[in-house]
Amino acid sequence: MSNAENKLKEMIRVAKPGAKLYIIDETSELIKFPGFIKKLLPKPKPEVFDPPLPFIPLQMINVDTHSIWNNRFWAVSFQKPR
Known about the structure:
By secondary structure, this protein is an alpha+beta fold. The chain has one domain (3-79). 27% of the residues lie in helices and 27% in strands. The protein has helices at residues 3-14, 28-32, 36-40, and strands at residues 20-26, 61-68, 73-79. A hairpin with a 4-residue loop joins strand 2 and strand 3. The chain starts with a helix and ends with a strand.
C-alpha cells in the first residue's frame, strides 16, 4: 500500500458518515509557473501530481475532480456514505 493510499484510508476512517472530504494539491503546471512560487516548493516527485482517484473506495459517493487556477492545482471531493 502506498503512503497516499494509507493517508486517504485514514481520512475516510475518521470522517463521520455523510462527511464531505476534499483534497487539493499542485500539478506539474505549477512547477512551470515562473516566479517565487517555484523557489518555495520542494523538489517535485512525479507521482505527487496526480489526483489519488485509484485509492478512493468505490463505495464513496459524489466523487468529483476539477482543476483550479489554470490547471496549476487539482481538487478531488467525495462524500462518505451514511
